[in-house]
Amino acid sequence: MKDLREFIDGVEKLGELKVINGANWDLEIGSLTYQIARKPNPPAVIFDNIKGYPAGYRVLTIPYSTDARAALSLGMPEGTKGLELVKQVRERLNEPKKSIPPVTVKNGPVFENVITGDAVDIFKLPVPKWQPGDGGRYIGIGDTIITRDPDEGWVNLGVHRVQVHDKNTATIMFEHGKHGDMMRQKYWKKGKGCPVAVTCGSDPILVFAGSVRLPWGESEMNFAGWWRRQPIEVVEGPTTGLPIPATAEIVLEGEMLPPEVESRDEGPFAEQTGHYSPTKPESAFKVKAILHRNNPVILAHLTYLGKGVRTGWTDLKKAASAWSHLDKIVPGVKGVWVPPEWPRAMIVSVEQKYGGHAKQAALGALAQHSYNLKYIIVVDEDIDPSNINEVLFALGNRSDPAEFDFIHDSWCNALTARLTPQQRELGDITQTVVIINACKPYYWIDKFPASIETSPEVDARVRKKFAKDLA
Fold it and tell me: Is the pLDDT confidence value at 343 over 90?
């Protein structure tokens, strides 16, 4: 896919697109999104004819909440789902990586409308207020934040929420330790604003790449080109000079001012954690230009959708990248899963081959993805890590709470609801991770009670004989 519109066309062909006309940007889009997202296999939703805005100015929500749409967005084979989808992404990550830099073109659809100077007004776009407790209207909840290191020159993509405060002022909620935050700190130390471009609707692969954790100095733009197997076409931003995806729906260009020059209170916001994030000061993002296609689409996927609803690729990405990493250091890993209904847990299935094998797998997973991880559960190879009932069975029958391991001071983020007021005051954004070995004890595994398994032959015969009763 070249852009978000090709993805939308693909979703429509899957029969998983719903169009709603006449909703109000003020809470109605958020309420409808929330209610639809809680249904089984919810469709992606396009909001059009939004109250107070021209027809064609649209908002896309719940884009990746089914396996079919997640697979479509990542270029995986149609019909891939569940643990097999994680496996496909993991196999892709295991391929030798080649950096494919973007190619600069002179023009692109993003230049169909270029608004600068006093004409800049972000509220000319149908920016929703999503939930009643939100601190304002949020446009950047399915975005990419584009910055360039002032010393080394490489380009970073990140995914961070964007709140609109007035016609040309927004805030970008950066977390300490993220590459974009480290870059803007460099500009501020020089007494300069940090140039930034925000895409509010683009090729899903760019959003996926922006959420992938790469080493310092490796550009997610190049990673996206590698994933697509062809370079991303970019244009030069007219006010920042930053590389902007030529087919982006909407781009806000400007600079993040040093906090001492101007800050705004960011938040609260109804985050995917199921809790409102706290208000905190953020650098003012002064928007100098708005670029957008005709009939632009705002992409939204990070707002709270309900308990157990997939909001993006976070679960797939975490599981696949951890599995890819474990393949290199731990033998016998049979699967890794991050449950959408329990996104701060990671479940690793391993065929035990030696004492300490399960603990090694857990520590390897933690080392690869400590960020925001709260529980690591290791199960035997006869347990499907994507089947929560089987995982709970293993927890109840094979684990011993006396042997749980607690790892303190692990990296989390400011959205973590369980951070104490004292931690927030100190800037202590850490949490404890518990490692649960829910495997049969290795040293007496042959004496462990046998698991009950039905006979495949009898099951097949019964299915055939009692097909009507089992239908």
Answer: no
